[in-house]
Each structure stands twice: as structure tokens, then as C-alpha cells.
Amino acid sequence: MLRKLVLAVSFSTLAAFSGSVLAAAFDVTDIEGRKVHFEDQPKTFVVANYIANFMMVGGAPGLEKVVALTKDGWEDTRYGEYQVFTKSFPKMKDLPSIGGYHDDILNAEKILSLHPDVLLIGRTQYAENSQRIKTFEKAGIRVVVLDYHAMTTANHTLSTEILGKLLGREKIAEAQNKTYKEALDHVYSTIAKLPQDQLGTKVYMETASKGLAQYGNSYNKDVLWGAILKNIKAANLAENSPQPYMALDREYVISQNPKVIFIGGSIWRNKSEGDQMRMGFTVPESQAQERLANFTKRPGWNMLDAVKEKRVYGVDHGSLRNMADYTFTQYMAKVLYPEAFKDIDPVGNLNNYYKTYLPELKYDGTFMIHLNQK
Fold first, then answer.
1. How far apart are CA 316 and CA 80, in angstroms?
2. Residue 327 Cα distances to 175, 187, 345, 347, angstroms
3. Closest CA to 367 of 357, 353, 235, 185
4. Which phi and psi angles does 263 have, rounded to 5°?
5. Which of 372, 324, 337 is nearest to 190 (CA)?
6. CA–CA separation, 71 vs 373, rounded Å?
7. Domain spanning 23-168: which superfamily?
8. In the beta sheet, which residues pair with residue 315?
9. Residue ranges per domain, the chain?
10. Which long-range CB contacts under 8 A does 347-350 form with residues at least 24 apart?
């Protein structure tokens, strides 16, 4: 009898132990459709893209798991973001860089020497580093591909779900996905009910990193601002451009006579700092308004309906590519359909999102503005 009891206890213990092992192991299927297996929760990460999303899901404690970032060019490309994040989280300054913040270059030797459990990358990094990725995987580094560039609900929410699993923060990821889906579903369903004659407003959108004299990038229907404009049924001047992003000809823009103009800004460290559009973290609204007003004085722009009808707006280019960027879809929809979205507060929603999911981030700045034409 005693022997039977001991055996029963032993089998029960073994079953419980096996169950815990099985529960610890999990798979994620990334944006490229690759199934990546984990025997247990990863402890160390190299975040080669989307550090803001990583922090929003992981919270401040998540940074303790990060052993490297892509920091080359971060300060020059997103000066305001760099200042705010490194001041709020000083550890970021001490982390080694393993590549470019705004390109697809990865330092394979450095990554291999750090040997993280996980390397998080974006889609273009995956496409441009196929041989390096094979080397990482042979070394036992699990590579996971995320995507927040396409501005689709599917990719945003899948990427966030993956981060939730990897960081053991599934409930946080679920809450963020719920907010994102509900907000965009409301925008799209509201627009779907509008009369056809209210749709198709002609819009010109430019990220004005090169200043007044040289036109900056516009975006086709598949990426960033272009994808947002497609989703809210605007007629984007760059919708069918052959490249995801490219500058449109001055003559073309003027000939198309857009009804609405959005100018995207940031703080880019380049030769055009004196007159580029400024938006985002650390930028006071007075400076953003002054810079935006200067763009309406470009040659020929006084003839554009958008300028004559005072429908010129500034948006922060750096705020896209994360789970708070649904607020920019709300804002652009409110610009195009003001009556339908009069009760939506995109700026308030953006600030509340950071307060909820990354309260340690101390910031000020200007993210969405209507030109104050006095």
C-alpha cells in the first residue's frame, strides 16, 4: 500500500513538473510568418527597432532586459525623442549600439559577442540582413521580426502581441491592442457612413526635413502617412508613387491644388536645421507655428486652396510606428471630417497613452497643430 502511495505521489509530482515545463515553453509567429520557439521566457534582448513599443509593453523594468540598441544616428535623426528617452531612462546612454537607428545596418560581430536571447528587428532589416540572420540563429540567438511601419491594425497588434509574450506582459499587450483596434474601428466605421461626396479630399503630405527650398518625402498608400490617408479615404497626391517614399515635384504639387496640407516635422540634425519643419518632443508650439507658417510662403503656394482656405497642419513624424500612433489617424480624420469627429481629442489621447503605459517618460512637445493664421 505504501509503495503504491509513493508511486502515486511520484507520478503526480512528475506530471506537475512536466506541466510546468510545458507551460514555460512557447512559440511566436512573427510578421514574416516565421515560427520561433522558446523553451522559457527570454531574459536578454537586443532591440534593433521599435524601442518605444518595447518600453510601452515592458514598462520601465523591461529596459533591464535590454543589452543593446541601434543608436547610431538616433540623436541626429530624432533629436527630441533621443533627449526625452535618454533623460528619462539614463541607462539607454550606457547601452552599446549595434547599428543604425534609421537604416538597416546591423553590427553582426557586436551582436554575436553580446549573445542575447532575442534580437528584435523590423522588416527591412530582415530583408537586408538575410545572411547575418542565419549566423545569429546558428549561434542560438532567436530573431523575431516586428512591423509598425505599414500602419495596419494587423501588423501593429500582432507585433504588440509578440512583445507581450516575449516580455511576459500579455495583459498589457492585450489592453493596448484593444485600445488600438477600438479607436481605429470607430474612425473607419464612422467614415464608412459618410456620404460619398465628403470623401476623397485632395491632400498633400510632406515630411519637411530638407527645409523650404527642397521638397521632402511624401508617402504612397502602403506606408506611414500615405497608409493613414488611404485608410481615411483621402486622395493623397503621392498615393500611387512607385517608391514607398519620395519627394514630389513642385510643379506637380501646385498643379494638383490640394485642399489640405500636412507638413511632418521632427528635429533633424542636418544642413536644413534653420528652416526645416519642427514638431515632436521638446519642440515648443510657438516654434512649430512659426516654421509651419513659413511653408505657406513657398513659391506658388499662395495659389493653393489649402493655403487660401487656411487648411494647413503640422504633425510629428517621429510619433508614428508605435501603438500610440492611432491618435494621428484620429487627428487627420478630424481635420478632413471635423463634424463627424468633433468629440475626439487626439492630443489628449496621445498624452494619456504615455501616462498610462510609460509614466516614467517625462516630456513636453508639440505633436499636432493647425496653422494659426492671424
1. 11
2. 16, 10, 8, 7
3. 353
4. -110, 120
5. 337
6. 38
7. Nitrogenase molybdenum iron protein domain (3.40.50.1980)
8. 264, 368
9. 23-168, 195-370
10. 349/183, 350/319, 350/324
pLDDT, residue 283, reads 98
pLDDT at 191: 99
List the one residue out of 355, 360, 370 whose CA is nearest residue 312: 370
Between CA 149 and CA 320 the distance in angstroms is 8
Q: How many angstroms separate the CA atoms of 194 and 198, rounded?
A: 7
Same fold for the pair 23-168 and 195-370: yes
What are the pLDDT digits (tens) for 66-111?
Answer: 999 999 999 999 999 999 999 999 999 999 999 999 899 999 999 9
Q: Quote the cell numbers at residue 284.
A: 515648443
**Distance from C-alpha of 110 to C-alpha of 121, rounded to nearest angstrom:** 15
In the predicted model, residues of the chain with pLDDT beneath 50 are 1-23
The 10s digit of each residue's pLDDT in 45-59 is 999 999 999 999 999
- Hey, which bits of the chain come out as E strands? 26-29, 35-38, 45-47, 66-69, 118-121, 142-145, 202-207, 217-219, 235-236, 245-247, 260-265, 280-281, 312-316, 365-366, 368-370
Per CATH, the homologous superfamily of domain 195-370 is Nitrogenase molybdenum iron protein domain (3.40.50.1980)
8 Å CB contact between 116 and 45: yes
- Using DSSP bridges, classify how beta strands 142-145 and 217-219 pair: parallel, antiparallel or unpaired: unpaired
Listing DSSP states for 181-202 in one string gives HHHHHHHHHHHHTS-GGGS--E
